[in-house]
Amino acid sequence: MKQGRTRRSAPAVSMNKIFAEGILNGRVAFVTGGGTGITGGVARALAEAGANVALVSRSLEHLEPAAKAIN
């Protein structure tokens, strides 16, 4: 018999379900590493929820396209 933990996958969650539209109006969100990957998606969701998003990264080449996608 196999011992140890059994891996279970987490249910898929839409970012729209986490941040209701307009809930962050007038707020500022600083997103580090916001140019790519998961944090890029979080930055977009925060913007859609009404936040003013400031993206921070070590790479300008990743930030410019991410900023254009948010605006």
Describe the structure.
This protein has 71 residues and is an alpha+beta fold. It has one domain (21-70). The protein is 38% helix and 14% strand. It has a two-stranded parallel sheet. It is flat and about 50 Å long. The mean pLDDT is 82.
Number of strands: 2
Work out the helix count.
Answer: 3
Unreliable stretches: none
Chain oligomer state:
single chain
The strand line-up of the biggest sheet is 1-2
SSE ordering: HEHEH
Mean pLDDT equals 82
What proportion of the residues form beta strands (DSSP E)? 5-15%
Distance between the termini: 54 Å
Radius of gyration: 16 Å
Structural class: alpha+beta
Short summary:
With 71 residues, the protein is an alpha+beta fold. The protein is built from three helices and two strands; from the N terminus they run H-E-H-E-H. The chain has one domain.
What are the main properties of this structure?
two-stranded parallel sheet; 71 residues; alpha+beta
Question: What is the strand and helix layout of this fold?
Answer:
Layout: H1 15-18, E1 28-32, H2 37-48, E2 52-56, H3 60-70
Parallel strand pairs: 1-2
